[in-house]
Amino acid sequence: MSDKNVLNFFAEAGMLKRIKRSGWWVVGIPHDESVAEHSFRCAVIGYVLAKMEGANVEQVLKMTLFNDLHEARITDMHKMAHKYVDVRDAEKKAFSDQIEKLEEGIKKDLESMRQEHDGQKTIESLVARDADILECLVQAKEYVDLGFKTAEKFFKKAPDCLKTESAKKLWAGAGDWDSGTWWEELGKFER
Q1: Residue ranges per domain, the chain?
Q2: Which of 49, 61, 158, 186 has the fewest CB atoms within 10 Å, measured from its CB?
Q3: Is-contact 47 57, C-beta < 8 A?
Q4: 10 has a pLDDT exceeding 60
Q5: pLDDT surpasses 60 at 191
Q6: What is the pLDDT of residues 157-173, one digit of tens each?
Protein backbone atom coordinates (compact mmCIF):
# COMPACT_ATOMS: atom_id res chain seq x y z
CA MET A 1 0.00 0.00 0.00
CA SER A 2 1.38 3.35 -1.03
CA ASP A 3 1.55 6.20 1.46
CA LYS A 4 0.12 8.42 -1.27
CA ASN A 5 -2.93 6.16 -1.57
CA VAL A 6 -3.58 6.54 2.14
CA LEU A 7 -3.04 10.29 2.05
CA ASN A 8 -5.36 10.54 -0.97
CA PHE A 9 -7.97 8.59 1.02
CA PHE A 10 -7.62 11.10 3.88
CA ALA A 11 -7.89 14.03 1.46
CA GLU A 12 -11.00 12.55 -0.11
CA ALA A 13 -12.60 12.12 3.33
CA GLY A 14 -11.85 15.79 3.89
CA MET A 15 -14.09 16.66 0.93
CA LEU A 16 -17.02 15.89 3.22
CA LYS A 17 -16.27 19.12 5.10
CA ARG A 18 -17.25 21.04 1.94
CA ILE A 19 -20.23 18.98 0.76
CA LYS A 20 -23.56 20.25 2.11
CA ARG A 21 -26.44 18.07 3.20
CA SER A 22 -29.02 18.29 0.42
CA GLY A 23 -32.17 17.93 2.51
CA TRP A 24 -31.52 21.22 4.23
CA TRP A 25 -31.01 23.31 1.12
CA VAL A 26 -34.15 21.76 -0.41
CA VAL A 27 -36.22 23.16 2.51
CA GLY A 28 -34.41 26.49 2.33
CA ILE A 29 -32.00 26.37 5.26
CA PRO A 30 -29.19 28.88 4.70
CA HIS A 31 -25.70 27.96 5.87
CA ASP A 32 -26.67 24.33 6.31
CA GLU A 33 -24.42 21.66 7.76
CA SER A 34 -21.79 19.71 5.85
CA VAL A 35 -21.72 15.94 5.52
CA ALA A 36 -18.68 15.88 7.85
CA GLU A 37 -20.56 17.85 10.51
CA HIS A 38 -23.44 15.38 10.24
CA SER A 39 -21.06 12.41 10.42
CA PHE A 40 -19.35 13.73 13.55
CA ARG A 41 -22.55 14.07 15.57
CA CYS A 42 -23.86 10.83 14.08
CA ALA A 43 -20.82 9.10 15.62
CA VAL A 44 -21.45 10.78 18.99
CA ILE A 45 -25.09 9.67 18.91
CA GLY A 46 -24.03 6.20 17.70
CA TYR A 47 -21.69 5.83 20.68
CA VAL A 48 -24.45 6.70 23.15
CA LEU A 49 -27.05 4.49 21.44
CA ALA A 50 -24.57 1.58 21.28
CA LYS A 51 -24.02 1.86 25.03
CA MET A 52 -27.76 2.09 25.68
CA GLU A 53 -28.51 -0.91 23.44
CA GLY A 54 -25.55 -3.06 24.52
CA ALA A 55 -24.09 -3.06 21.00
CA ASN A 56 -20.44 -3.23 19.96
CA VAL A 57 -19.36 0.40 20.21
CA GLU A 58 -16.36 0.11 17.88
CA GLN A 59 -18.46 -1.40 15.11
CA VAL A 60 -21.16 1.25 15.48
CA LEU A 61 -18.55 4.02 15.40
CA LYS A 62 -17.03 2.59 12.20
CA MET A 63 -20.45 2.46 10.59
CA THR A 64 -21.37 6.01 11.57
CA LEU A 65 -18.02 7.48 10.54
CA PHE A 66 -17.81 5.74 7.16
CA ASN A 67 -21.53 5.67 6.30
CA ASP A 68 -21.46 8.75 4.08
CA LEU A 69 -17.89 8.57 2.77
CA HIS A 70 -19.18 7.83 -0.74
CA GLU A 71 -20.68 11.33 -0.78
CA ALA A 72 -17.19 12.71 -1.35
CA ARG A 73 -17.64 11.34 -4.90
CA ILE A 74 -21.37 11.43 -5.57
CA THR A 75 -22.46 14.18 -3.13
CA ASP A 76 -25.45 13.94 -0.80
CA MET A 77 -28.36 13.11 -3.07
CA HIS A 78 -31.75 14.25 -1.85
CA LYS A 79 -34.59 11.73 -1.91
CA MET A 80 -35.82 13.38 -5.12
CA ALA A 81 -32.72 12.02 -6.89
CA HIS A 82 -33.73 8.47 -5.98
CA LYS A 83 -36.50 8.74 -8.57
CA TYR A 84 -33.92 9.23 -11.32
CA VAL A 85 -30.72 7.61 -10.09
CA ASP A 86 -30.08 4.21 -8.54
CA VAL A 87 -28.52 5.87 -5.52
CA ARG A 88 -27.82 2.66 -3.59
CA ASP A 89 -25.79 1.20 -6.46
CA ALA A 90 -23.95 4.50 -6.90
CA GLU A 91 -23.11 4.56 -3.18
CA LYS A 92 -21.79 1.00 -3.24
CA LYS A 93 -19.72 1.60 -6.38
CA ALA A 94 -18.24 4.85 -5.06
CA PHE A 95 -17.35 3.29 -1.68
CA SER A 96 -15.79 0.25 -3.36
CA ASP A 97 -13.68 2.49 -5.58
CA GLN A 98 -12.67 4.66 -2.62
CA ILE A 99 -11.21 1.77 -0.63
CA GLU A 100 -9.76 -0.11 -3.61
CA LYS A 101 -6.15 1.05 -3.14
CA LEU A 102 -6.04 0.62 0.63
CA GLU A 103 -4.09 -2.16 2.35
CA GLU A 104 -5.94 -5.46 2.00
CA GLY A 105 -6.76 -5.81 5.73
CA ILE A 106 -8.24 -2.32 5.91
CA LYS A 107 -10.12 -2.82 2.65
CA LYS A 108 -11.64 -6.13 3.83
CA ASP A 109 -12.62 -4.62 7.19
CA LEU A 110 -14.37 -1.69 5.52
CA GLU A 111 -16.08 -3.94 2.94
CA SER A 112 -17.37 -6.19 5.71
CA MET A 113 -18.54 -3.22 7.76
CA ARG A 114 -20.37 -1.75 4.77
CA GLN A 115 -22.12 -5.04 4.00
CA GLU A 116 -23.20 -5.38 7.62
CA HIS A 117 -24.47 -1.80 7.70
CA ASP A 118 -26.40 -2.18 4.47
CA GLY A 119 -27.87 -5.54 5.55
CA GLN A 120 -29.56 -4.01 8.60
CA LYS A 121 -29.69 -7.34 10.44
CA THR A 122 -27.32 -6.83 13.38
CA ILE A 123 -27.94 -4.63 16.41
CA GLU A 124 -24.86 -2.62 15.42
CA SER A 125 -26.24 -1.87 11.95
CA LEU A 126 -29.63 -0.91 13.40
CA VAL A 127 -28.00 1.36 15.99
CA ALA A 128 -25.82 3.02 13.33
CA ARG A 129 -28.84 3.65 11.11
CA ASP A 130 -30.81 5.01 14.05
CA ALA A 131 -27.91 7.31 14.90
CA ASP A 132 -28.04 8.65 11.34
CA ILE A 133 -31.79 9.23 11.51
CA LEU A 134 -31.72 10.64 15.04
CA GLU A 135 -28.93 13.06 14.10
CA CYS A 136 -31.05 14.31 11.22
CA LEU A 137 -34.04 14.73 13.54
CA VAL A 138 -32.00 16.59 16.16
CA GLN A 139 -30.60 18.86 13.45
CA ALA A 140 -34.11 19.50 12.15
CA LYS A 141 -35.26 20.34 15.69
CA GLU A 142 -32.38 22.79 16.05
CA TYR A 143 -33.32 24.46 12.76
CA VAL A 144 -36.99 24.64 13.82
CA ASP A 145 -36.00 26.12 17.18
CA LEU A 146 -34.01 28.76 15.28
CA GLY A 147 -37.12 29.70 13.33
CA PHE A 148 -36.81 27.58 10.18
CA LYS A 149 -40.25 25.95 10.33
CA THR A 150 -39.78 24.20 6.99
CA ALA A 151 -37.44 21.76 8.75
CA GLU A 152 -40.52 20.31 10.50
CA LYS A 153 -41.10 18.31 7.31
CA PHE A 154 -38.45 15.90 8.58
CA PHE A 155 -40.61 15.08 11.61
CA LYS A 156 -43.29 13.42 9.46
CA LYS A 157 -41.63 10.21 8.25
CA ALA A 158 -38.18 9.98 9.85
CA PRO A 159 -39.32 9.05 13.39
CA ASP A 160 -41.18 6.02 12.00
CA CYS A 161 -37.85 4.72 10.63
CA LEU A 162 -36.25 4.44 14.08
CA LYS A 163 -35.82 0.79 15.12
CA THR A 164 -34.15 0.75 18.55
CA GLU A 165 -36.04 1.47 21.75
CA SER A 166 -33.33 3.88 22.87
CA ALA A 167 -33.58 6.05 19.76
CA LYS A 168 -37.39 6.01 19.88
CA LYS A 169 -37.34 7.01 23.56
CA LEU A 170 -34.86 9.84 22.99
CA TRP A 171 -36.85 11.24 20.09
CA ALA A 172 -40.13 10.95 22.03
CA GLY A 173 -38.55 13.17 24.68
CA ALA A 174 -37.65 15.83 22.12
CA GLY A 175 -41.22 17.09 21.68
CA ASP A 176 -41.05 19.78 24.34
CA TRP A 177 -37.25 20.08 24.30
CA ASP A 178 -35.79 23.45 23.35
CA SER A 179 -32.46 22.67 21.70
CA GLY A 180 -31.12 26.15 22.34
CA THR A 181 -31.31 26.21 26.12
CA TRP A 182 -28.68 23.64 27.14
CA TRP A 183 -26.01 26.31 27.45
CA GLU A 184 -28.07 28.73 29.54
CA GLU A 185 -27.42 26.78 32.73
CA LEU A 186 -23.70 27.07 32.08
CA GLY A 187 -23.94 30.85 32.06
CA LYS A 188 -25.61 31.09 35.46
CA PHE A 189 -23.48 31.87 38.45
CA GLU A 190 -23.89 33.14 41.97
CA ARG A 191 -22.56 36.51 43.12
Answers
A1: 3-187
A2: 186
A3: yes
A4: yes
A5: no
A6: 999 999 999 999 999 99
SS3 of residue 34 by DSSP: strand
Looking at residue 175, the DSSP 8-state letter turns out to be: T
Q: What is the pLDDT of residue 101?
A: 95
Query: Which among 92, 167, 159 is positioned nearest to 123, based on CA atoms?
Result: 167
What is the C-alpha to C-alpha distance for residues 127 and 51, in angstroms, rounded to an integer?
10
Distance CA 82, CA 46 (A): 26
Distances (CA, A) of 48 to 8, 61, 122, 130, 172: 31, 10, 17, 11, 16
d(CA 169, CA 177): 13
Residue 190 has pLDDT above 80, yes or no: no
Task: Report DSSP letters for 82-115, one per residue.
Answer: GGTS-HHHHHHHHHHHHHTTS-HHHHHHHHHHHH
What are residue 34's DSSP bridge partners?
20
pLDDT of 103 strictly over 80? yes
Q: What is the dihedral of CA 149, 154, 156, 157, to 10 degrees?
A: 170
**Architecture of domain 3-187 in CATH?**
Orthogonal Bundle (1.10)
